[in-house]
Amino acid sequence: MKPSRHWVVCSCLVFSLMAKTTPGFAASANFAGQDLKGKDFKDGNLNRANFDGALLNGANFRNATLRGATFQKAHLENANFSKAVLDDADLSGAELHGVDWTDAKAWHAKLAGTEIDLQGAVVVDLKKLNLDYGAEKLIQSARRSDSGSLSFHYADLRGCKIIGNADGVDFRGADLRGADFTKAEKLDSARLAGAKYDAGTQWKIDPAKMHAELVVGGEGPAPAGAKISHHPLIGRWLILKGEKGATESGSIQIHPDGTFDWDYSQNATPLKGEWAEAGDNIVVKSGEKGETWTVSRTHSDEILLKGDRGTERVGILNK
């Protein structure tokens, strides 16, 4: 029996209203400029949601998915982003005092010029936020001394002021030009391999020992024709011996400028060449055995490389 026209119309209306009012339903909801202090977005699917200029003091985004969401100039004091996924999110100009970043993943996120309070930092007085007792109690109960597996991998942190306990925090490949770490603790225990810094970066560590990379010339304009990519497969991957027929261990480094270095054998010179974006995948030209390879992610820290002649390799992220 077919549903009546009335039932179909009503159902469409219900789903339309849900998309507008339920945080976990719509992938591109618009909350720009709204007063959402203390709002609970826990576990929400909020990819590409717009929170620009919103009042989100004490809001709960625990375990929410926020890929590509935008929080430009939003008020996020004492908000909870623990276990949230903020890949490619834009928090430019946002107020982030007291944010709980525990175990958050913010790969390629834009946070330039903000102040980031890691766990252990002195945070904003909750009383000044005029939150109800329940919200204050929730925030206080979640406090801990470290930030867990917090990752700002390849994030834009130019000019940021970062305070609190940086032990174990992932800044690999992040842009740290002009950043101020003078009030960060245990920075020598953070992950800084490939992070970009310049003469304006302030810290009390030896960046060379942390494998950070000095950028000469600061934030000047990029060279004419320069290509900079933020593809999520950028990084160094270890090729596993014995997997998919690989007879040796090796590595492939995918660079943001569209080039790669592939060290596939102890008895051969590493290959250098170019790669191109192909949606979620990338295509590596003239790689091992002269093949063109399609690289795709199979797990969060694992990739599969498939050559155009049927050869395959497995790689894991070099942490």
Provide structural commentary.
- Strand 7 (250-254) and strand 8 form a beta hairpin.
- This protein has 319 residues and is mainly β.
- The strands form 3 sheets. It has an 8-stranded antiparallel β-barrel with strand order 6-7-8-9-10-11-12-13. The protein has a 3-stranded parallel sheet with strand order 1-2-3, with no helix packed on it. Strands 4-5 form a two-stranded parallel ribbon.
- The protein folds into 2 domains: 17-220, Pectate Lyase C-like; 235-317, Lipocalin (Beta Barrel).
- The protein has 2 helices and 13 strands, in the order αβαββββββββββββ.
- Residues 4-27, 124-129 and 218-226 have low confidence and may be disordered.
- It has helices at 5-21, 133-141, and strands spanning 115-117, 161-165, 184-185, 196-197, 213-214, 235-239, 250-254, 259-263, 271-278, 281-284, 293-299, 302-307, 312-317.
Give the helices and strands, then pairings.
Elements: H1 5-21, E1 115-117, H2 133-141, E2 161-165, E3 184-185, E4 196-197, E5 213-214, E6 235-239, E7 250-254, E8 259-263, E9 271-278, E10 281-284, E11 293-299, E12 302-307, E13 312-317
Parallel strand pairs: 1-2, 2-3, 4-5
Antiparallel strand pairs: 6-7, 6-13, 7-8, 8-9, 9-10, 10-11, 11-12, 12-13
